[in-house]
Amino acid sequence: MQDIDISQFATELRDAVGAENCSVDEVDRVSYGYDATRRDAPCQAVAWPTEIEQISALMRLANRLKIPVVPRGSGSGLSGGALPIHGGIVMSLERMNRILEIDTANRTVTAQPGIRLNDLKQAVQEQGLFYPPDPASAKIASLGGTIAECAGGLNCVKYGTTKDWIMEVRAVLANGEIVRLGSRARKCVSGYNLLQLLIGSEGTLATVGEATLRLIPYPAFRRTFTAAFPGSQNAAEAVLGILNGKIQPCALEYIDRNSIECVRDYLKTDKLALVDALILGEVDAFSDEEAGEAIGHLTQICTDCGASEIRTAQTEDEREELWHIRRNLSPAMFAKGRIKVNEDIAVPIAEFPAMLQDAYAIAARHNVTMVCFGHAGDGNVHVNLMSDIEHDPDVLAATHEVFERAVQRGGTISGEHGIGTMKANYLELEWGPVEMGLLKEVKKVFDPNNILNPGKIWPERSKCAGGCDTV
Fold first, then answer.
1. Angle at the Cα of 416 from the Cα atoms of 411 and 417, rounded to 5 degrees
2. Which residue stretches of 66-165 are H helix?
3. Integer Cα distance of 47 and 24 in angstroms
4. Among 95, 352, 396, 470, which residue's beta carbon has the most beta carbons within 10 A?
5. Among positive and negative, which fits the CA dihedral 198, 201, 204, 209?
6. How many Å apart are CA 233 and CA 125, to the nearest integer?
7. pLDDT, tens digit, for every residue of 161-190?
């Protein structure tokens, strides 16, 4: 952040968003310089706008003074996207948390970016409607954060990711202008698809002030099962068998033995069998009979692939308990090491079994503890490399190899967490120089003064190399 008169700056910030909606107090600046990566960075001020017009006023001020602005949802991201690594203003959108409209006739909901995803999902469900994106952090993740990262989650295998459900946004550009992108019509091919350009842009191009989301009828009947396997390849073959079958699950998760050990200790539960590999799957339907037939079909495939035990949740409480366990896998990992490098590679689904083999072989070659789980149904593997040493050279080498192999298999270095600061130094493994140039040119068009979340996505060799999460 450039040298400015901090008292004059604070006065102008109060004029932009209101005295009650900003702070330069140290406790706030420290609190909002921290996120789920367990890293921190200092900022000079925090703002909590309550309306899109306040975002606009804040951006006009920041653009004039060339002060960095970091949009922030709930701080639950795992790529360092909300860290103010170049100082400036952290613009927390948590107070913009209202549902503006639920349109049952058109099956849409319009909401502000700060609403918690679970609150939004519950509100539309009460109207018999369904918003499918369901990241494991849905209880705390904000709508705006999931748009910024193009969040995925448990339902991706059947319903896709956030980008498949956003119809229209009102967003604020770096110069403070408010734009409307997309359409509430189900079909729209007028001009370039600028809406999709913003989704997954990690707050580097514009700030979403409200979004209209597509909804579908809520499938009220659900069946959930676990299938235990004597090896990871048996489980991977079952995943492919299910995905190549006629029944599409709404969730299909892979969990390895190290993951099971961690979460059993963390939650003090024995609800997951201590086996080499486990599949956690679910189907949804509009009748109990349809759901029953579907779950029977999937569990038979697991049996044919060598499942040693299959359990089906008999009550809603049992189902919720299984998903509670799954959602706590990530925090449970720290039982295996003080430092966790949490990567979320994704490969074409046919490459999932081979990618698992590659990942385990890479960990063994570098003598690194690896904990794997993830959204097997869409080839998204959460590869967690554990250590007690920060910047462990073996972990860094293994991380690099895992990324290389994922790209070689036609995949990506990030399926849903984004690049942020934690993976910026690896982006060139996936993008060539021409493509990287295009990305940077787009950034210049939207943000010529580079004030919106600077230092994210683009490689900065001295920043966060390796992406270790530390306690």
1. 115
2. 117-125, 143-149, 156-159
3. 9
4. 352
5. positive
6. 37
7. 999 999 999 999 999 999 999 999 999 999
